[in-house]
Amino acid sequence: MLKFKWLPAFLFIVVILAFIGWNSIFSNQEWIRLVGINGIQLLVGAISFMWLYKAYIRSTGRKRHFWFLLSAGLLFSFTGNFIWLYFQVTHNVLYSNEFSSVFWVLSYFTFLLALMNRTQLIGFTFSSRTYTFNLIIYMLTASAITYHFLIQPFLLATDASLFDLLLTLGYQLVDLGILFFIIILYYRIQSKKEEKIFLFIVAGLFLQITADSLSAYLSIGDKYLPGSFLDLMWISALLLIGGAAFYNKETLSQDMEQKENISDQKRSTLPYVSILSLLLLGIFSNSWHFNALSIGLLFAFLLVLGHQLYIINRNNKLMAELRYSAYYDSLTGLANRVSFIGDMKIIIEEKTEEQVAFLLIDLDRFKLINDTLGHHIGDEILKKTAIRLKNSLPATTEIYRLGGDEFVITLPHATERTAAETAKQILASFEKPFPVRSHEINVTTSIGISLFPGHGTTSEDLLKNADAAMYLSKEKGKNIFSFYNAELNKNMMRKMDIENHLVKALELNQLSLFYQPKVNLETQEIVGMEALLRWKHPEMGWISPAEFIPVAEETGQIVPIGKWVLEEACRQNKLWQDQGLPSLKVSVNVSVLQFQSGKFIKNVKSILMDTQLPPQFLELEITESIMQNIAESTEVLEQLGKLGVKTSIDDFGTGYSSLHVLQKLPIDTLKIDKAFIDELDQNCKQPMVKAIIDLALNLGLNIVAEGIESANQMESLIEMGCPVGQGYLFSRPIDSLEFEKLIGLSTLTPETDAKQPAGSS
């Protein structure tokens, strides 16, 4: 049995065979032949009308108007054919009469209204210049041909009645309107696969107006014969229009109401074929005087010329934009790395004997700004950085953005003195904070300087050496500049070695925890401990935390390492408690990357559960940098508090301290930075230390002084009311076995002038 979805195709084949068969059988009986062909056309019209009417019933909203108008158009067409059949049967006429023609014109006009309605639904706009050009060429060609071959002959005909003239004009004008809107609909359905069913309507209406034009042209020379292939074209057109309704489903047309602009379509050769058609028609018609064909050809030629000029102009603009994007940074407008390498090549090829200085500028803690405030704030900082660099330097200075937060400046004919003066100007320009939206952000820079040709004769070497000098500036405390020297290569190689070996340090069990006691300053009793990470490499020996922890933070390795530290500290503390040793709270340092990790709270819960350590015996030490993202930090701290885990702010007073924010943070302890404790040797009543202690006590917080190295410092802290401290005066960080012995002591005897080696903690 024939599948239902193939019904239109089956009918199409049957209609063609019936048309050809009927024409052949009754070729010598003109009246019967024409009546039969008209009957076939009426049957097809009735079936198509039924499909269109069902589509109208199924549709909702404004889409119903489209199917209603198509149904009405088919009904008018059917009526015109029925009137013709009536006169054929009753009056034995062969040709259609004026009454039929009126209904056929009404049918075409209704189809035009349906297309206009559909175009309104899809929200068509002339946003595509290519499409607009194609549409104008099509319509110009169609209008010129229609006027020259169809309209003008009727206008010049002396025996044509006014009604025939108006009827002919009506046909042609409506056909041109239908052509205009089916082109729009055709372009629209190219971008939406689910609307391919409307190709039936486009094909059907195009077939219909083609048959009309051919019929009108043949009628002028009295060459049109009813029942010819033109009738088959009209019948096929009706079946195609009805087929669109047959295959239409409500879901397929819902998206048509969305207002979408037509994007640029793939270039078509059809506009140029249209122009060629005008040219060939002009040649074969032997009509080269000023007429519709020549006027159309002239305007089409001018349009093509204008369009090509537009394309050339647009391509030139695109090339200019591509050149700009290739050599300039889109965010800051500065020259980019490609420009820098190109300019460097010129400098090197000139082999000038004069020095050229290269200042590599890197924003300090820029990653922290991105991580805490967001990349949109970071982008604003980069834009404002470019502006400050331009304002602080002569207009002729070449400034490049290499990527990220790195900028480079070239100074031709420079000496070390002029390079240093320029670096000082840049550092001074960053003394004021950056106002970004609701933030006032302090940004400093670290600058590395290399000199051509002394420090390298290639852009790679000069940039690498300036980078080494810049990292030296960061190691010295940031916000300074440094010149490259040969010693820096050794430092860079060591840093690279540390980075490479650190990747497997955890896996190879090279990391360990040392512990430093926290003591009651008055009684010398151990009241807690801090777990400190240590690394002993089999070849490089003991590597200072001051060396490898910054590398771990830069590379992101601090996250898995920090998780291991937390797990090991909890495991060891629980083991000591199970051995019957005093229950002490262990403090573990947490990096910003760990703290901001979405899995941080989950990891803490999991570690406490796995090690069975009661949460009140765990304290997490965080830095003041969390204050830069106070909302997120507060949420994490509150969740830790609900778990029973204690929290403290380490190195208080040296970072992003904000008293307004501090009073809102759910923390338990403040740790006074060692830098303040060191000053107690010169001033035993150091006011800043006293202020921090009073602040903590007034806020109901615990207070711990770290880095105590002398009895004088301890006595000053006791006098100021600080209850707890830690430092080399009591004990250096020691491994777990030694610390286990230390816990057994009831009190500690302070060492005399126990100075802490630089870089250890």
Structure summary:
This protein is an alpha/beta fold.
Explain what the structure shows.
This protein is of the alpha/beta class. The protein has 3 domains: 219 residues, no CATH class; 149 residues, 2-Layer Sandwich (Alpha-Beta Plaits), CATH 3.30.70; 246 residues, EAL domain (TIM Barrel), CATH 3.20.20.450. Helix content is 58%, strand content 12%. The strands form 3 sheets. Strands 8-9-11-12-13-14-15-16 form an 8-stranded mixed beta barrel, surrounded by 4 helices. Strands 2-3-1-6-7 form a 5-stranded mixed sheet, with helices on both faces. Strands 4-5 form a two-stranded antiparallel ribbon. Strand 4 and strand 5 form a beta hairpin. Helix 2 packs antiparallel against helix 3, helix 7 packs antiparallel against helix 8 and helix 18 packs parallel to helix 20. The longest helix has 36 residues. The protein is elongated and about 135 Å long. It starts with 6 loop residues before the first helix and ends in an 18-residue tail after the last helix.
Question: What topology emerges from the helices and strands here?
Answer:
Elements lengths: L6 H19 L4 H29 L4 H29 L6 H24 L7 H28 L5 H28 L9 H22 L8 H19 L22 H15 L7 H36 L9 H14 L5 E8 L2 H8 L1 H18 L5 E6 L2 E7 L3 H14 L4 E3 L2 E3 L3 E8 L6 H17 L5 E3 L3 H19 L5 E10 L5 E12 L3 E3 L1 H11 L2 H21 L6 E5 L2 H4 L4 H12 L6 E5 L7 H14 L2 E7 L6 H4 L6 E4 L1 H5 L8 H12 L3 E5 L4 H10 L3 E3 L7 E2 H8 L18
Parallel strand pairs: 6-7, 9-11, 11-12, 12-13, 13-14, 14-15, 15-16
Antiparallel strand pairs: 1-3, 1-6, 2-3, 4-5, 8-9, 8-16, 8-17, 9-10
Helix pairs in contact: 1-2, 1-8, 2-3, 2-8, 3-4, 4-6, 5-6, 5-7, 5-9, 5-10, 6-7, 7-8, 9-10, 12-13, 15-16, 16-17, 18-20
